[in-house]
Protein backbone atom coordinates (compact mmCIF):
# COMPACT_ATOMS: atom_id res chain seq x y z
CA UNK A 1 0.00 0.00 0.00
CA UNK A 2 1.28 3.45 -0.86
CA UNK A 3 2.72 5.48 1.99
CA UNK A 4 0.50 8.32 0.83
CA UNK A 5 -3.16 7.50 1.27
CA UNK A 6 -5.42 8.43 -1.60
CA UNK A 7 -8.37 10.73 -1.10
CA UNK A 8 -10.61 7.65 -1.17
CA UNK A 9 -8.69 6.12 1.76
CA UNK A 10 -9.13 9.16 4.00
CA UNK A 11 -11.69 9.31 6.74
CA UNK A 12 -14.65 11.25 5.30
CA UNK A 13 -14.47 13.54 8.31
CA UNK A 14 -10.83 14.43 7.66
CA UNK A 15 -10.42 17.68 5.69
CA UNK A 16 -8.33 17.77 2.55
CA UNK A 17 -4.83 19.26 2.97
CA UNK A 18 -5.15 23.03 2.94
CA UNK A 19 -8.90 22.91 3.46
CA UNK A 20 -8.53 24.61 6.84
CA UNK A 21 -6.84 27.59 5.21
CA UNK A 22 -9.78 28.72 3.09
CA UNK A 23 -12.03 29.81 5.96
CA UNK A 24 -9.14 31.74 7.51
CA UNK A 25 -8.44 33.45 4.19
CA UNK A 26 -12.12 34.30 3.78
CA UNK A 27 -12.28 35.61 7.33
CA UNK A 28 -9.23 37.77 6.70
CA UNK A 29 -10.74 39.16 3.51
CA UNK A 30 -13.98 39.94 5.32
CA UNK A 31 -12.07 41.68 8.10
CA UNK A 32 -10.12 43.77 5.59
CA UNK A 33 -13.32 44.69 3.71
CA UNK A 34 -14.98 45.79 6.94
CA UNK A 35 -12.00 47.96 7.93
CA UNK A 36 -11.88 49.60 4.50
CA UNK A 37 -15.65 50.19 4.45
CA UNK A 38 -15.49 51.69 7.94
CA UNK A 39 -12.61 53.96 6.94
CA UNK A 40 -14.52 55.22 3.90
CA UNK A 41 -17.71 55.68 5.91
CA UNK A 42 -16.03 57.48 8.81
CA UNK A 43 -14.19 59.80 6.43
CA UNK A 44 -17.13 60.79 4.24
CA UNK A 45 -20.00 60.90 6.74
CA UNK A 46 -21.23 64.12 8.30
CA UNK A 47 -23.08 62.26 11.06
CA UNK A 48 -22.20 59.24 13.25
CA UNK A 49 -22.07 56.08 11.14
CA UNK A 50 -24.25 53.09 12.02
CA UNK A 51 -22.42 49.77 12.05
CA UNK A 52 -25.19 48.30 9.90
CA UNK A 53 -24.17 50.81 7.23
CA UNK A 54 -20.55 49.69 7.46
CA UNK A 55 -21.56 46.04 7.13
CA UNK A 56 -23.69 46.79 4.06
CA UNK A 57 -20.91 48.74 2.36
CA UNK A 58 -18.46 45.91 3.12
CA UNK A 59 -20.83 43.37 1.59
CA UNK A 60 -21.10 41.29 4.78
CA UNK A 61 -23.81 40.61 7.32
CA UNK A 62 -23.95 42.47 10.60
CA UNK A 63 -23.21 39.19 12.40
CA UNK A 64 -19.93 38.91 10.48
CA UNK A 65 -19.02 42.46 11.47
CA UNK A 66 -19.68 41.76 15.15
CA UNK A 67 -17.80 38.47 14.95
CA UNK A 68 -14.72 40.43 13.88
CA UNK A 69 -15.35 43.55 15.95
CA UNK A 70 -17.56 42.94 19.00
CA UNK A 71 -17.85 46.67 19.73
CA UNK A 72 -17.74 49.97 17.87
CA UNK A 73 -14.59 50.80 19.84
CA UNK A 74 -12.87 47.66 18.52
CA UNK A 75 -13.69 48.63 14.93
CA UNK A 76 -12.52 52.21 15.39
CA UNK A 77 -9.24 51.02 16.90
CA UNK A 78 -8.70 48.59 14.01
CA UNK A 79 -9.34 51.31 11.42
CA UNK A 80 -6.99 53.71 13.17
CA UNK A 81 -4.23 51.12 13.58
CA UNK A 82 -4.57 49.98 9.96
CA UNK A 83 -4.35 53.53 8.65
CA UNK A 84 -1.30 54.24 10.79
CA UNK A 85 0.38 51.03 9.63
CA UNK A 86 -0.21 51.96 6.00
CA UNK A 87 0.99 55.54 6.23
CA UNK A 88 4.10 54.44 8.13
CA UNK A 89 4.94 51.55 5.80
CA UNK A 90 4.41 53.38 2.53
CA UNK A 91 7.45 55.63 3.11
CA UNK A 92 9.83 52.78 2.34
CA UNK A 93 7.69 51.53 -0.55
CA UNK A 94 7.58 54.97 -2.17
CA UNK A 95 11.36 55.28 -1.93
CA UNK A 96 11.66 52.04 -3.90
CA UNK A 97 9.63 53.59 -6.72
CA UNK A 98 10.49 57.30 -6.71
CA UNK A 99 13.38 59.71 -6.03
CA UNK A 100 13.33 61.01 -2.44
CA UNK A 101 11.69 64.41 -3.18
CA UNK A 102 8.88 62.80 -5.19
CA UNK A 103 8.50 60.00 -2.63
CA UNK A 104 8.23 62.55 0.17
CA UNK A 105 5.63 64.62 -1.69
CA UNK A 106 3.54 61.51 -2.42
CA UNK A 107 3.85 60.45 1.21
CA UNK A 108 2.58 63.86 2.33
CA UNK A 109 -0.66 63.23 0.42
CA UNK A 110 -1.03 59.87 2.17
CA UNK A 111 -0.42 61.53 5.53
CA UNK A 112 -3.19 64.08 4.88
CA UNK A 113 -5.59 61.23 4.04
CA UNK A 114 -4.64 59.57 7.34
CA UNK A 115 -5.24 62.84 9.19
CA UNK A 116 -8.69 63.13 7.59
CA UNK A 117 -9.66 59.66 8.80
CA UNK A 118 -8.38 60.40 12.29
CA UNK A 119 -10.29 63.69 12.39
CA UNK A 120 -13.50 61.98 11.27
CA UNK A 121 -13.24 59.44 14.09
CA UNK A 122 -12.59 62.21 16.61
CA UNK A 123 -15.70 63.99 15.33
CA UNK A 124 -17.96 61.04 16.20
CA UNK A 125 -19.28 61.65 19.75
CA UNK A 126 -19.47 57.89 20.33
CA UNK A 127 -15.78 57.31 19.64
CA UNK A 128 -14.10 60.69 20.00
CA UNK A 129 -12.04 62.02 22.90
CA UNK A 130 -15.11 63.31 24.76
CA UNK A 131 -16.27 59.71 25.00
CA UNK A 132 -12.83 58.72 26.28
CA UNK A 133 -12.62 55.94 23.72
CA UNK A 134 -10.02 56.92 21.14
CA UNK A 135 -7.31 54.27 20.93
CA UNK A 136 -4.01 55.06 22.60
CA UNK A 137 -1.48 54.40 19.83
CA UNK A 138 1.99 55.99 19.53
CA UNK A 139 0.97 57.95 16.45
CA UNK A 140 3.57 60.72 16.45
CA UNK A 141 6.45 58.30 16.98
CA UNK A 142 5.42 56.23 13.95
CA UNK A 143 4.97 59.33 11.78
CA UNK A 144 8.32 60.77 12.84
CA UNK A 145 10.02 57.47 11.93
CA UNK A 146 8.48 57.54 8.45
CA UNK A 147 9.49 61.17 7.94
CA UNK A 148 13.02 60.37 9.09
CA UNK A 149 13.28 57.56 6.53
CA UNK A 150 12.32 59.93 3.72
CA UNK A 151 14.51 62.82 4.85
CA UNK A 152 17.59 60.63 5.31
CA UNK A 153 17.22 59.22 1.81
CA UNK A 154 17.11 62.73 0.37
CA UNK A 155 19.99 63.96 2.52
CA UNK A 156 22.17 61.07 1.33
CA UNK A 157 21.76 61.85 -2.36
CA UNK A 158 21.68 65.62 -1.87
CA UNK A 159 18.13 66.06 -3.15
CA UNK A 160 16.75 67.23 0.22
CA UNK A 161 18.13 69.57 2.86
CA UNK A 162 20.16 67.85 5.56
CA UNK A 163 19.40 70.46 8.23
CA UNK A 164 15.66 69.71 8.50
CA UNK A 165 14.81 67.34 11.34
CA UNK A 166 11.96 64.82 11.36
CA UNK A 167 10.35 66.81 14.19
CA UNK A 168 10.54 69.99 12.09
CA UNK A 169 8.70 68.44 9.17
CA UNK A 170 6.21 66.55 11.34
CA UNK A 171 5.22 69.81 13.02
CA UNK A 172 4.78 71.54 9.65
CA UNK A 173 2.64 68.69 8.35
CA UNK A 174 0.51 68.78 11.48
CA UNK A 175 -0.28 72.41 10.73
CA UNK A 176 -1.20 71.61 7.12
CA UNK A 177 -3.38 68.70 8.22
CA UNK A 178 -5.27 70.86 10.73
CA UNK A 179 -5.99 73.37 7.99
CA UNK A 180 -7.00 70.56 5.62
CA UNK A 181 -9.63 69.12 7.96
CA UNK A 182 -10.99 72.59 8.76
CA UNK A 183 -12.74 72.67 5.40
CA UNK A 184 -10.37 74.41 2.99
CA UNK A 185 -10.39 73.33 -0.64
CA UNK A 186 -8.24 70.32 -1.62
CA UNK A 187 -6.26 72.45 -4.07
CA UNK A 188 -5.29 74.76 -1.20
CA UNK A 189 -4.02 71.79 0.78
CA UNK A 190 -2.04 70.63 -2.25
CA UNK A 191 -0.51 74.11 -2.56
CA UNK A 192 0.47 74.11 1.12
CA UNK A 193 2.15 70.74 0.71
CA UNK A 194 3.95 71.94 -2.42
CA UNK A 195 5.29 74.93 -0.48
CA UNK A 196 6.55 72.66 2.30
CA UNK A 197 8.17 70.35 -0.25
CA UNK A 198 9.84 73.28 -2.04
CA UNK A 199 11.27 74.46 1.27
CA UNK A 200 12.96 71.10 1.74
CA UNK A 201 15.02 71.46 -1.43
CA UNK A 202 18.67 72.46 -1.02
CA UNK A 203 19.34 76.14 -1.68
CA UNK A 204 20.57 76.95 -5.17
CA UNK A 205 23.65 79.14 -5.17
CA UNK A 206 24.12 81.60 -8.00
Query: Which outline best applies?
Result: elongated
Any idea how many domains? 2
CATH topology of the largest domain: Tetracycline Repressor, domain 2
According to CATH, the homologous superfamily of the largest domain is Tetracycline Repressor, domain 2
- Unreliable runs, pLDDT <50, ≥5 residues? 1-22
Let me know the number of strands. 0
Q: What's the architecture of the largest domain, going by CATH? A: Orthogonal Bundle
Radius of gyration: 23 Å
| Fraction in beta strands | under 5%
In which range does the helix fraction lie?
Answer: 55-70%
**Overall average residue pLDDT:** 84
What's the CATH first level of the largest domain? Mainly Alpha
Please give a structural write-up:
With 206 residues, the chain is an all-alpha fold. The chain has eight helices and no strands. The chain has helices spanning 21-44, 51-58, 62-68, 72-97, 100-123, 139-157, 166-180, 186-199. It starts with 20 loop residues before the first helix and ends in a 7-residue tail after the last helix. Mean pLDDT is 84; it is low at 1-22.
Key terms for this structure?
disordered N terminus; Arc Repressor Mutant, subunit A; mainly alpha; 206 residues; Tetracycline Repressor, domain 2; 2 domains
